[in-house]
Amino acid sequence: MSALLQLSGVSVAIGKAHLLEGIDLALDRGQILGLVGESGSGKSLTAMAAMGLLPLIGGRVTAGEVRFDGTDLSTLGEAGRRHLRGRRIGFVTQNPMTALDPVQRIGAQIDVVSRLHLGLDKAAARARTLDLMAQLRIPEAAAVAEAWPHQLSGGMKQRIVIAMALAGDPDLIIADEPTTALDVTVQAQILQILAGLVRDRGLALMLITHDMGVVAQLCDRVAVLYAGRLAEERAVGPIFAAPAHPYTRALTLCIPREGMARGSLHGIPGAVPSAAAYPAGCRFHPRCARADATCRATVPALSALPDGGLVACHHAEPGAP
Amino acid sequence: MTQPLIQLRALTRRFETGGGWFTPARSMTAVRAVDLAIARGEVVGVVGESGCGKSTLARLVLRLIEPTSGQILLDGTDLTALPRAALRAARRRMAMVFQDPYSSLDPRYTVADVLAEPFVVQRRPMDKGAAEAMLADVGLPASVAASHPHQLSGGQRQRVGIARALALRPDFIVLDEPTASLDVSIQAQIIELLSGLRDRLGLTYLFISHDLGLVRYFCDRIVVMYLGAVVEVLPRPDAAPRHPYTQALMQSNLSPDPSRRRAIAPLAGEIPSPFSLPPGCAFAGRCPRASDRCRTERPALETAEHPVACFHPI
User: Fold this and answer.
1) In terms of CA atoms, which chain A residue is nearest residue B51?
2) Is residue A32 classed as helix, strand or coil in its secondary structure?
3) Ranges of chain A with pLDDT below 50
4) How many CB pairs under 8 A join A and B?
5) pLDDT one-digit tens code per residue, A90-130
6) Domains of chain B (ranges, CATH numbers)
7) Which of A27, B167, B205, B277 fits A33 for a cystine, CB–CB 3.0-4.6 Å?
8) A206 and A299 in one domain?
9) Does A94 reach chain B within 8 Å, measured CB to CB?
10) B258 contacts in A (CB within 8 Å)?
């Protein structure tokens, strides 16, 4: 049986820049998949590919295929893909301040999604909007629906963006750093709402984040991207307990944990290379303590781990639990 | 007791807005009567959410903005009473590292120009080879000196910002969210760099951050602010919170360990507008322990080994 969202060997280029290479991902209903990696690793581009949004930024899939509910996105026209987005795939952006139209009232911005995608009339759309707002625990929903975006706090705006994503009754939500712009106590509120939607409605959630704390607390599976390639894909438990890829291990060691002694935090030396300067072989080798001649010359293939995960490293740790 | 390096006494800053033809005048107290002593060699963290006044406090301490009232003492000298020339001399001993290394470096300057500027401002001679030594201090190769900021990565830029702060060998550095715009991998590099520099150069830091996990890792003592006021001072980074707000902050900090998953129990409600603070405790509207007294009377920060401003501490 195929997953709700399946990326098989997807490569993406914009112009002459080959930005993603051979991405394999699967996500099912009721599941949260975390997409992690440093800036420039290709997380957002992967999300764009999953939504068929690449033409918008002048990009194209050069190899592999993206399947949503069994349909290859490349066989759909732009109209078909547009119907998919909004109706079956909802999107939550990082910055709610830019996702909302500043000159349209809040309620109208949510209404339009269900009118367009579910064919509801004006009254039914508004009823649905107020219902969604109440589900997202927005107090005084009717009053907020008449408000303008600038009158709301950041956390409240992000709930509105989530309400818009839900208005078409989608099966999949893709959230790109949904809480990065928010304060920590508000972040907790938003994450609780997203996790509740997955649990109660059986939504699939693709969560793009750089925050390993969010990943550890929320996700079922985790895909680690580095410089446009998949480094490791595992269930959340083993990926923290026994990371197979040195990059994954390094990422988990960057975050201070409870009771950690000063001086025991380890950064990753160097920085993610730009697409124009990708090194040969394994792209992580210049920053990797284990790199040898093989890593400098040969691209590591994705191989299966005993627990069903994937890793691309010549010197992968066994990843035993 | 030895004299603290930095001492803040009832430091307060109010901002006024409006007051034009169409907008009524409003005022907010961004920093309210903050008392704090920082010992030489100490790393004091200030943590809180947006609007809590932590960045205003950072700027007040260096007198980059003027306090409405209160005093800032550096080694016993009141900076608020100093005339311009004497203030400039005192500022040689203090420096700041800014949050955003993209906007805190002049794009037209080379790194060498950036590093020379403190010497120009302070009218001090700069030794030949000083720039190379400053870059080496922050782990950058000498070749970076000829680069412009846009040629550097975010982490490299923040290292340049730190080298500039160290230029005149200050005693005291204010770090205003120095890693907030960097990837975690780079954040860890910068924190370890700052930690090593402190040990080697005997620096004293005031570290401003919204990240309680990071502050608990890096700081000796932690000041927690909410809407302009200090609500708690944790005497040790691992001290258990006594203020319900500090506890909520700790519970909102997600542990990077899936084996220690717990239900996310967010605080209800949102931060009230600083322009219309409630009469009592500013946190009362979101606090599970709030009583009638909390809604009418503002709790003061007690003077104790572990001070807290709360009528019902944990």
Assistant:
1) A183
2) strand
3) 321
4) 135
5) 999 888 888 899 999 999 999 999 999 999 999 999 999 99
6) 1-18+27-93+195-281 (3.40.50.300), 99-169 (no CATH)
7) A27
8) yes
9) no
10) 216-217, 236-237, 240-241
